[in-house]
Amino acid sequence: MAAAPNQGDYTRSLYDSELASMERLLQASMGVSQAVGGIQTANRFIRATQLFTRLTVGSYTFVRLLPSNTLTHDRVEFWDWPSIACVARNIVETYHTFYYLIDPSLSVGEVEMRMDLMHLHLNSEKYRLYRELKPDAEILREFEIGLPKDKERLKKNAIFHKLSEGRQSELLKGRAAMHLTHAEIGESLPFIDRYFRPIYRLFSIHVHSTPMSFQAQSNERGRGDENEAERFYVTLAIQIILKYLSAAVMDMARIFPDVVARACPDALAVAREVHDATVA
Questions:
Q1: pLDDT tens-digit profile of 37-66?
Q2: What distance in Å separates the CA atoms of residue 153 and residue 212, rounded to the nearest whole number?
Q3: Is residue 80 assigned to a domain?
């Protein structure tokens, strides 16, 4: 990522250019998602295709929120930076989960640990949700029998044992789907690295409607009108999502080279071009 952005440089012309790139990349992503849907492959890559589709759908929603997009054909522009920030953070987190499973440097043992941890979290979340809904006792009993088995399978993994005892204990509670934090994953990605924390905080401020999301702005802001501040933040969000989505398309082209090349011959080239050209 380049140097910290300067608000004054984020002109309307730059916004229009980044929006055009986002719409172009979205079309490539949609083609890849369609091509890999239902593909028979290793379990972790099946999960990756599901996450990639979620990335694509989230990006479609993201584009629909952008003023002057060609998907909605709104007659009046509406600059809703807080909603854009919320969707942007979800896209970022979805990519992190996606990369957590497809990182090419993983050993067989590491893949197994990550898949087992996600399976434990899945069943733990189902159990907590169903318990709160107070269903038939038989439904809960199935999880009460299965969850200890999920934990035992994870405890047998040699990679899992390399974690500290405290971390192992926390993960066995089934409250985390990944043993790495979003910050750890984000800071390991070369296209975001040290800027991950401030970008993630910027998005999170609006996800949680903290005081900074409303107290610090002037009366002209937050009303859906274009102004320098709203344009800066929205354009910056596009630049960040361009990096993440283009990286995901390139990842899919690496995992499924023949499928992507045959079904979407231009997708990889578009992703590379956008990834290299984006300012962020």
A1: 999 999 999 999 999 999 999 999 999 999
A2: 44
A3: yes
